UniProtKB/TrEMBL annotation:
<protein>
    <submittedName>
        <fullName>SDF2 factor</fullName>
    </submittedName>
</protein>
<dbReference type="Pfam" id="PF02815">
    <property type="entry name" value="MIR"/>
</dbReference>
<keyword id="KW-0677">Repeat</keyword>
<feature type="domain" description="MIR">
    <location>
        <begin position="62"/>
        <end position="116"/>
    </location>
</feature>
<dbReference type="InterPro" id="IPR016093">
    <property type="entry name" value="MIR_motif"/>
</dbReference>
<feature type="domain" description="MIR">
    <location>
        <begin position="6"/>
        <end position="61"/>
    </location>
</feature>
<dbReference type="InterPro" id="IPR036300">
    <property type="entry name" value="MIR_dom_sf"/>
</dbReference>
<keyword id="KW-0732">Signal</keyword>
Amino acid sequence: AVCQRGTPVRCGQAIRLTHLGTGRNLHSHRFTSPLSGNQEVSAFGEAGEGDYLDDWTVVCSGTYWARDDEVRFQHTSTDVFLSVTGEQYGRPIHGQKEVHGMAASNQNNYWKVMEGIFMQPSEAFQTEQYHAEL
C-alpha cells in the first residue's frame, strides 16, 4: 500500500523504496553482484509496481524509524542487508559505487537520512485552497 503523507515507518515494517526519476523499485534476488561478489541489488518494476523481491524490512531500534537514527534495510526474501562498500564501476558511470546485499550486518549497511525526504502531497492537500499573508 502507498504510505500516506506523515505516516511514521515502524521498525520491522516491510517497505518498498522507489526511485522517483525512473519509477523502479530497489530489488534483489539470488544473483552475484559483478564487483564485490555479494548479492546483486538492482532496479525493477514500472511506476512503483513490482514483485515480492522489492520488499525490504526496516531494521532499527525503538518503535519507529526516527529522522536522525541510523537504519538498516534487510531484504525480506533473502535476508541480506542493503550495503555499499568501496567497489566502483568504471563504466557506464565512472566512479559509481556498487550497492549490494551482504549476509552479515556490519558498518557497511547502516543508512541515515541526510537531505530529507520527498513526499508527494496527498490528494486532500492538493485540492485545498491556501492564502499566504504578505
